[in-house]
Design goal:
Layout: H1 13-20, E1 27-28, H2 39-48, H3 60-71, H4 81-90, H5 97-113, H6 116-126, E2 133-134, H7 136-144, H8 153-161, H9 176-188, H10 194-200
Helix pairs in contact: 2-8, 2-9, 4-5, 4-6, 8-9
């Protein structure tokens, strides 16, 4: 965890799991935070974890809402960006108590050791944005044929909108659902702080 403050990891557990499943089409390219459009981190926060700048790895309000919803038969997640970063880098798919326990332990250490801006940099470089597309560098090239620093607000929102179902989403040819979700994200982006928030992380 200390090394992750300074060292850019070349791969993640999810990428390696894809390789073991004989996926030879993996696309991944590390991009430094300063080389990413300022719209994109903001879009990810608006989409996935609007309390990211202020919480300590766990969004207790969201967890409470999820537990209440489950009592009513509604299933949805409450994973923060930090939790997803830990999962992507170190763990595996699934919902076992063992994986959740390891995740919670690693999240606590990540929040203690690694600055928020660095956690966000790790996340946007290893989040899955397509069946074989990992990270914003590969996603911007694959879907729009441009480097990550050229992504517009709309393109950033479309890629971020794919996060719940990346293997079934195509930001370059968005479905009606993806277009609607991207519009919601664009509406939320100024509300979570916009470029000022990114600079202050």
């Amino acid at each position: 965890m200390v090394l992750l403050r300074f060292y850019d990891p070349p791969t993640s557990s999810f990428i390696e799991l894809n390789k073991r499943n004989h996926n030879k089409n993996i696309k991944h390219e590390w991009v430094n935070f300063e080389q990413v459009s300022e719209y994109f981190p903001n879009a990810v926060i608006a989409s996935e974890d609007q309390q990211f700048p202020s919480h300590h790895g766990f969004d207790l309000t969201q967890i409470k809402e999820v537990l209440e919803n489950r009592k009513n038969g509604i299933s949805r997640g409450a994973s923060t960006i930090t939790q997803q970063t830990v999962k992507n880098l170190f763990l595996w798919p699934g919902r076992s108590y063992l994986r959740k326990g390891l995740e919670a332990w690693l999240v606590a250490w990540m929040e203690l050791i690694i600055p928020k801006k660095r956690i966000l940099e790790l996340y946007i470089n290893f989040a899955q944005f397509g069946k074989s597309v990992f990270g914003v560098g590969a996603a911007s090239q694959y879907y729009f044929g441009i480097p990550a620093h050229q992504l517009s607000a709309e393109q950033s929102a479309l890629i971020a909108a794919s996060l719940p179902t990346p293997s079934r989403s195509n930001p370059a040819k968005p479905s009606a659902y993806l277009t609607k979700r991207a519009a919601y994200i664009m509406d939320q982006m100024p509300r979570v702080g916009g470029r000022r928030m990114i600079r202050e992380l």
